[in-house]
Amino acid sequence: MAVTFLGYYAERQSFYFSKYLAKEVEMGNFRSGYIKLDGYLNTQKLKVTGRVIVMAGVLLFLLLVSVSDTFAADYTGSGQFPAGGWIRWKFTGTSSGYEPRANISMGRWHTYTDANLLKVTSNEDIKVVVTSFGITTWYGFAYICDIYGNCDNSTAFSNTYKSCELDFNTYFSGSWSDAEKENTFMHEAGHCLSLAHRDGVNSIMDPDHSSQNWLNEYDKVLVNNRY
Q1: First and final CA of the chain: distance in angstroms?
Q2: Which of 2, 124, 129, 212 is the most exposed place for a label (fewest CB within 10 A)?
Q3: Roughly what angle, to the nearest 10 degrees, separates helices 178-192 and 99-112?
């Protein structure tokens, strides 16, 4: 999935670069030599100078930096649970009205991404705790610890994960719809899978989308890139 996404991104940038070159030719900015591009300008010979080579190099560099920064900004760090195996999760706390929603929510990550989530009754990696934590600044919280004992900080987020406690505060959720409950479970599970907040997009990781209970394609790509 990651390769597919990068290929699509690069294809888009190549298209826009080709349009840029066409405009430069139209304006008469290229004076000597010829180059033939695949795709958009496949049959057109373009007069070029060293300026084109420099511009192509700059655009390629910006493309690579942009892709790298985009991925980096979408994760809490470089850490994660070990890829390829089962990520075991356990439900504890208030089950009535919540455990079915947790089952559905964790099931969506398991079904639609490469993360293998398995519900267990012991020896869990992710512990889902549903109870009233009283008045807090959050509805849900993901508390991540790494294999070295670091917890809830940039160091923990950059190492191999040992555990994630997914806390759901029922103090606020008495009148919530099923979709809102699922949104909180899915959002915090995304943090447990190493995803950061993503604002302004139709992502389960956007804190402002309180009733979204589905994954967009980029949510899936980000998890598949790790697992």
Answers
A1: 11
A2: 2
A3: 50
Longest dimension (CA), the chain: 75
- Contacting residues for 15 by C-beta, under 8 A, at least 6 apart: 39, 40
C-beta separation of 213 from 112 below 8 A? no
For every one of its 227 residues, what pLDDT tens digit does the chain have, with 9 covering 90 and above? 444 344 433 444 443 334 433 443 344 443 333 233 333 333 333 344 444 344 444 333 333 333 343 455 799 999 999 999 999 999 999 999 999 999 999 999 999 999 999 999 999 999 999 999 999 999 999 999 999 999 999 999 999 999 999 999 999 999 999 999 999 999 999 999 999 999 878 999 999 989 999 999 999 999 999 99
Pick from 21, 62, 68: which is nearest to 41 by CA?
A: 21
Structure token digits, residue 133: 């934590």
Four-CA torsion 142, 148, 149, 153, nearest 10 degrees: -50
**Tokens describing residue 55:** 């511009």
| DSSP three-state, residue 128 | strand
**Quick one: fold of 86-226?**
Collagenase (Catalytic Domain) (3.40.390)
Q: Which two tokens stand for residue 189?
A: 């599970």
Q: Where are the domains of the chain?
A: 2-73, 86-226
From CA 166, how far away is CA 175, in angstroms rounded?
21
